[in-house]
Write a structure and sequence with these properties.
By secondary structure, the chain is an alpha/beta fold. About 30% of the residues lie in helices and about 25% in strands. The chain starts with 13 loop residues before the first strand and ends with a strand.
Length: about 325
């Protein structure tokens, strides 16, 4: 962020960005002001209209997912291009774009990004929806369609069905003809999950998950479980699967799963477990184009609607983290610069 950005006809401008110098609680999120950076060769300068908040941001902040320090926070945002570096083709100043990485630093008013990391934003998708959805919707696309290969007619279990990823996943699964059992922690969240399309909802704050799944499936269990909760739901997820079923463990909201004896997979039905990372599914240009086209199609069709439960000013990100970690959110949370 050291170089100044020279924008013709404009006075020198400032960029505000988050920085963490030590791992820890939300109070570790600090803020700095820099001169607006200039894009280098192959880069563009994006002015953010909205920034997405994701549970993975808390992992980076706490050190659960180790990162070099000092560092920024945030993986996804949407806005418009205000400057181009040398050699950039396919984009122009004023184009609306969104991104979901690489690297941290989306908690900012502006950001220099590699042009090839950007996705052109359709006119009918506003910045806040794109920032709330691109990482989560791409995650759902990859997990449902290219990781688990869920088929119409399947019955699957989705943990945290009223959360940001959960709500998108429930709608996506229903759009492709899947029966969905969701888990939630309160009646208010159960109502939200039902409204999103869940066929059945299990209140894990009062009922056991696996017996409920067995009852709903006449004892058979489900072929796929999508688990973004982690430690607290791992065994219940395994116990909910049918023989040779697949557990897609993609998050650690309750802490990481560790100390697993692989023999348990044999004991519970020759089960499969995967711990996928989104960017392995969006690694090549072909995969990126395929995945994002599907995401924009599902969002644009209205089959998957994005619920923004809460917005915060950008510099109130610490409070947004507190609410997210307390599991008091529904839908997606967005930071507004």
């Amino acid at each position: 962020m050291g170089r100044q950005c020279i924008l013709k006809g404009q006075q020198k401008m400032k960029c505000t960005r988050a920085v963490i110098e030590r791992h820890g609680g939300p109070e570790m999120i600090g803020w700095v002001e820099d001169d607006l950076p200039a894009p280098g060769p192959g880069q563009v300068l994006v002015e953010h209209g909205a920034v997405g908040l994701n549970f993975i941001d808390t992992y980076h902040r706490t050190g659960l997912y180790p990162i070099e320090l000092p560092n920024g926070l945030g993986l996804e945002a949407a806005g418009r291009i205000i400057a181009l570096g040398d050699g950039v083709t396919g984009f122009a100043v004023g184009d609306r774009v969104a991104y979901m990485g690489p690297g941290l630093g989306a908690y900012a008013t502006h950001r220099v990004m590699p042009a090839d990391a950007l996705y052109r934003l359709p006119d009918d998708i506003p910045d806040d929806i794109a920032a709330a959805a691109i990482l989560k919707a791409a995650t759902v696309e990859a997990l449902v369609e290219r990781c688990a290969h869920v088929k119409p007619g399947d019955t699957v279990l989705v943990h945290a069905a009223a959360g940001g990823v959960g709500l998108l996943m429930v709608q996506w699964l229903k759009a492709i003809g899947v029966q969905v059992i969701g888990t939630v922690s309160s009646q208010a969240k159960a109502d939200i999950a039902f409204a999103a399309g869940c066929d059945h909802v299990i209140r894990y704050d009062r009922d056991e998950i696996a017996p409920g799944v067995r009852e709903l499936t006449d004892g058979a269990g489900v072929p796929v479980v999508f688990d973004g909760v982690g430690k607290d739901t791992f065994i219940a997820s395994l116990d909910s699967l049918s023989p040779r079923g697949l557990l897609v463990s993609f998050g650690n909201a309750s802490g990481p799963v560790d100390g697993v004896n692989l023999g348990i997979l044999a004991q519970k039905g020759s089960l499969f477990v995967t711990r996928p990372t989104l960017f392995h599914y969006y690694a090549s240009p072909e995969d990126r184009a395929l995945g994002i086209a599907r995401v924009w199609s599902m969002l644009g069709s209205g089959k998957v609607e994005v619920t923004i439960g809460k917005t915060y000013p950008l510099t109130e990100a610490a409070q947004a983290h507190r609410v997210l970690e307390a599991r008091k959110t529904t839908g997606s949370t967005v930071l507004i610069p």
